Fold this sequence. Notes:
Layout: H1 2-11, E1 13-19, H2 38-46, H3 60-68, E2 72-77, E3 82-87, H4 89-96, E4 101-109, H5 141-147, H6 149-154, E5 163-168, H7 181-185, E6 189-194, H8 208-217, E7 219-220, E8 224-225, E9 232-237, H9 247-262, E10 266-269, H10 294-304, E11 308-312, E12 334-339, E13 363-366, E14 370-373, E15 379-382, H11 385-402, H12 408-416, H13 436-441, E16 456-459, E17 468-472, E18 477-486, E19 492-503, E20 506-508, E21 516-523, E22 528-535
Parallel strand pairs: 5-9, 5-10, 6-9, 10-11, 11-12, 12-13
Antiparallel strand pairs: 1-3, 1-4, 2-3, 7-8, 14-15, 16-17, 17-20, 18-19, 18-21, 21-22
Amino acid sequence: MLCCGSWVLAQESQYVVFFSDKDTLAYDLDRPEEYLSVRAIERRYKQNIPVTYSDFPVKEDYLKQLRELGAEVYYKTRWFNGALIEATPEELESILAENFIVGSELVKPRGRGERRKSGSSTGKSRRTRKQEEPLEQLLNMEQNDMLGIDEMHEDGFNGEGMLIAVFDGGFRGVDTVAYFQHIYEDDRMLPGYDFVGNSPDVYQYGQHGTEALSCIGAYLPGVLEAGAYGADYMLCVTEEVSSEYRIEEYNWLFAAEYADSTGADIISTSLGYTTFNDSAMDYSYEDLDGQSAVITRAVDAATDRGIICVVSAGNEGSGSWHYVSPPADAQDILAVGAVSRTRDKVSFSSYGPSVDGRVKPDVSALGLQTVVVDASGNVVTSNGTSFAAPLIAGFVAGVWQAIPHATNVEIIEKIRFSGDMSLTPNNETGYGIPDYNRLMDNYLTPIEDMPQKHYYKVYPNPVEDSDLIIEPSNGNFEGTLHINLYSPEGKLMLEKNVDEFKRNSLTLDMDGLSQGVYIMHILSASVSDTLKIVKF
């Protein structure tokens, strides 16, 4: 049996192959409706995001040629311009010899037939549990209160009109449990897909996704009311629980493109990748640069199209890895760490910084004894950043509903700077625990309440047309600096990352900024500081 298994793995494996070009004759940037949904186009236009060449579908002729060369073609990727195939070494050699192929990546050594062919849903009927009597206090009240979700609901914001895509390893029970019935009864569950089993049936495998979804959208009035119970949903299976190969990162990419084309506003992901069954695929800390890991690049592509990606930071804080797991290293996302009911970091919660010195995680939420709903409809508690992240996803949906004119990046910045550690962020809980009231009041702690002790001095301040000089109060700068300049409303106006160096001052060009008051945040490996800057 062992010899036979080794022979099969050697004969057929899965690869992503990349194409040289796209069909610029069949598709046009001025006619996006021919290859994107109306909702996807509207999301881009609303945020002034142009449709680009990378949104064009891949060439169907290339897929046809792959099949003629003996490959099984599973999924295609517009953003990376390629396709997932299964092929023997001999077939791959022939494929790589073609002029339209510019590269390939082994994503899973396996035998043909392990990935199921497309099938139909199980068609299980939904049963409704007897609704419990309303309680004096919601079962999930404490985790809601921590984020101000109760006030968000009182203001009428529950995610209505937002489409949230949830990617996980399985959603068993979602179609039968009473806490999710409101989504189906209101026709707010859009068709999802199982990218592991190649099937439209997402209601199988485990219940990790079920529990994560319950943190965002579960609802029984007076009993349990998650942050975005009024949103639309789409479920995708991308995680293959039985093994760990890079194919799962590409499954995430395929699902993200599917969600994008459907018009998703938010993607919630309680997944992360560092090591694999094939050690050649492993990532190192040096890969946490926001641009190396496959899934991190996929997240960036989704962000570029106006989607907000909310991801778990990881549960390696007490392990040998320690750091956040890709895709949590991506820049314009919300990577979420776990805190306890006392608002302290939980030991297992992964921490930063990213290798280029950025604060990670971005924010935090309850990840210890988080109230969730399991596949049998039981309300239980569970631990992990896997449940802190969807709490933030529900929060994001309500905030974006409340501020519909904002872009995805603006919402991310507003949420970061509504955190209780926004003026002194760290690499354990990030900018802290976001708060709805703080965000809606002004997005930032008032300038007059900023701390008076500073580790850096800046001059001239006020600054007119000259450069702003930044000096450490004592000694030299050492290490990497991350400098952000914000408007009082929390909009990022200027960003500068200064790589490893040692000197006693640096300059910042302020010429492109209009007159007004700004807030500068300076973060190094050892200290952070927040200062008020006035531009004349």
